Amino acid sequence: MITFYTITNWLLIFSYWFLIAGVTLRILIKRRSVPFAMAWLLIIYILPLLGIIAYLSMGELYLGKIRTKRARTIWLSTSIWLKNLQSNKNFYDKQNSHIAKPLFQLCKKRQGIAGVKGNQFELLTTSDATLRSVVQDIQLAHNNIEMVFYIWQPGGLADDVAEALMAAARRGVHCRLLLDSAGSVAFFRTTWPTLMRNAGIDVVEALPVSFLRIFLRRMDLRQHRKVVLIDNYIAYAGSMNLVDPLFFKQKAGVGQWVDLMARMEGPIATAMGIIYSGDWEIETGKHIPPPPVLHNTILPYKNKNDHTILVIASGPGFPEEMIHQALLTTIYSAQKTLIMTTPYLVPSDHLLHAICTASYRGVDVRIVVPRHNDSLLVRWASRAFFSELLEAGVKIYQFEGGLLHSKSILVDGQLSLIGTVNLDMRSLSLNFEITLAIDDNSCGKDLARVQDDYISQSRLVNALLWSQRAYWKRIVERLFYFFSPLL
């Protein structure tokens, strides 16, 4: 009996260390960044069993076999369609400013989508304006409506959008709605999904979350895009979820969410439709045929208010590190000014270095973040970066008019980036994200006015006072900073 227990004991000990060694080797073989690897190794060695389970469920970018196979198939056919589209001289713009040229060339090379010309562009700075505009466009839709959101929260004007969408479906408009399972969990617990499906809307729960799927796919991989497409001609994109701020997270104690959306008309809707069709097919296995290359809806406007817009997408199945490379290219292109707004400031080492380097070489760098954040972990982790940024001369503003959720970058008043990407590792290397890049001085002026308004409602962080903050705060910041690669 003693021999049996001894053998069993040694087998358990051997299996325990073999599992830890195996996961350690897997982390090292993946060749991730040193901070990322060190954070996971520390978790695994301090809390072995919990750490191993956490790594196997969240440590690697794994979409799942079925979705991965679909993603590979999609882009084989999509690349052919994009090559055919490049023959249309009225679609892509070959002329870019010297500020935007590196970014546009990078994206054309890596994702096959260049800057699209001939678009109308409008910034929507309030949630009310955005929701009312979406309702109006839905009411005028004739053929198809495609929507994807991370969060759909019922209540207020969000219900008006739902009613308008159901009315459109009843009159024969083909409506597709893709919502993230985790972000829209409250929506899927209401009667709205049933009502919409009964009205004829294709409602799909993206990346379902359940315990049974934990080892089949990474559970914290999220569909984070916010997009509305109407009749292959009208498009919306930006930071706003489908929520009415008056009915959203009122008990969080951070104030109303402040967002920024863009409404566009023109061929950019076709380019964004390529991204949406990929998301839809990855999730459902059903193919959405792209519009004909020479269809009237993709012929651009011909007037002085035309805008060239580039759509940049990321996520499993898309070019790896696409958003990260795009942001680095954008920051290094800055020569005079660089203004950034983000709710979550937990950048990679490369991004932090690029931002600080821009300031050191004389660029006026300003970053606007919310003073109060809905994420305790991110709030403390982001502050760990303040000292290095302030030392480099970066001006950090803390927005006091609510939770600033807008994600925007303006370079030299010429190149504008607006979308769903936070400056954190989750957006940079994990989630399905989308960003618009606009190479236009007039759009730059519009974005500058919005950012100036944010700054007017913010408090500038004093570098001297920050250096004198309590030591316990510094300890907490460094503790959360260590886990920043996982946030």
From TrEMBL:
GO cellular component, one term: plasma membrane
GO BP field: cardiolipin biosynthetic process
Active site: 224, 226, 231, 405, 407, 412
PROSITE patterns documented for this protein: PLD (PS50035)
EC number(s) per entry: 2.7.8.-
Top-level EC class: transferase
Alphabetical UniProt keywords: Cell inner membrane, Cell membrane, Lipid biosynthesis, Lipid metabolism, Membrane, Phospholipid biosynthesis, Phospholipid metabolism, Repeat, Transferase, Transmembrane, Transmembrane helix
Cross-referenced Pfam families: PLDc_2
Transmembrane segment boundaries: 6-29, 36-58
Membrane topology of this protein: Multi-pass membrane protein
Family: Belongs to the phospholipase D family. Cardiolipin synthase subfamily. ClsA sub-subfamily.
Function recorded in the entry: Catalyzes the reversible phosphatidyl group transfer from one phosphatidylglycerol molecule to another to form cardiolipin (CL) (diphosphatidylglycerol) and glycerol.
PANTHER family listed in its UniProt record: CARDIOLIPIN SYNTHASE, PHOSPHOLIPASE D
Name of the molecule in the record: Cardiolipin synthase A
